[in-house]
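For practice. Supply one:
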Amino acid sequence: MYYILYSILYLLSLLPLKLLYIFSDIIYFLLYHIFQYRRKITFQNLLNSFPEKTNEELLNIASTFYKNLSDSIVETIKLISISKKELTKRIICNWEIFEQLEKDNKNAQAYMSHQFNWEWATVVCNWNIKLQFVGLYMPVNNKVIDKLFYKLRSRSNTKLIKVQDMQKEINKIQNQKILWGFIADQNPSDPKRVSWNDFLNRKTAFFKGPEYVARRYNNIVYFGEIIKIKRGYYEIKMKLAFDNPQSTKEGEITEAYVRHLEECIKRQPSNWVWSHRRWKHQFNH
């Protein structure tokens, strides 16, 4: 089944993005207007996050989000065959910020989020930095889809580690010159072992793992933001957040990331995934 699906998607990926965006428009119409995919969840998340906005403003954010989501679907398909040259042209970044890492012989970690298009960012990063890029990921339950995403995300030789395997792999990985990549806004599966932070008007669960790694190994911490410039073009803005994590207090790095993420979302709200059940866990303390 995997090879059949991959073959079909590979042939589709050979189409120019201009044609793929026609499919994106169709996908948007189906998701938003016909099937109304997770529209109630999306609207509720937006209403809770931006109570100061009018219904018209929220509807506009929601509609644009579904368009961005649809673009992301076809862009991910394009990732199967897009050339290094074209992808590097379409997603730019201030890569020079990482040059000091190699000189100082230090490891680092980049906190990212579900801003479009994080799939492109995962691949393009390893082509543009001298350190090994290591991505932490949550496996998909469907084995065929999981295998497909693993192939896509590792096509630039990005090393991928399952969240479940992090503890047994971490010492070995840390002995190399690496840059960790964390999509740090995911909803943790176990609400008993999380950091609760104020985020978009409610207590929200965040993973403690990235901060634990940073403070244990004193990895330099960067925060990233993905900005959609126009259709098919993105900019990643990286900034240095903590150059000496071992000097921080417990929870300080996570809280700083949450504030950073909130600011990024407010700047471009339609470029973040609102259809996730992000607030499935409730704060009961």
Remarks:
- The chain has one domain: 2-271.
- The beta strands are 91-93, 108-112, 132-137, 159-162, 178-183, 195-199, 202-206, 220-230, 233-242.
- The first strand starts at residue 91 and ends at 93.
